[in-house]
Amino acid sequence: MKRKVIAVIAAVIMLALCACSKAGGHETVKPGTSSVPKTAGPDTSGKTAEPSTPTEAPADAPTAAPVEGSEGLAIKEYNDRCIITGIGSCMLTDIVIPSHVNGKPVEAIDECAFQDNTTITSVFIPGTVQTIDEDAFAGCTSLAAVTLSDGLTGINEGAFYGCTALKSITIPQTVAGISSYAFRGCGLEEVTLISCVDLRNNVFSDCEKLRSFVIKNVYNGSYKIMNNAFGGCYSLEELVLAPGLTEIGTWNFPDAPNLKTVFLPRSLKSIGACTFLRSGVETVYYEGSEEEWKNVEIKEPTFTPEVVYNSVFGG
Question: Lowest mean pLDDT: which of 68-72, 81-85, 194-198?
Answer without folding.
Answer: 194-198
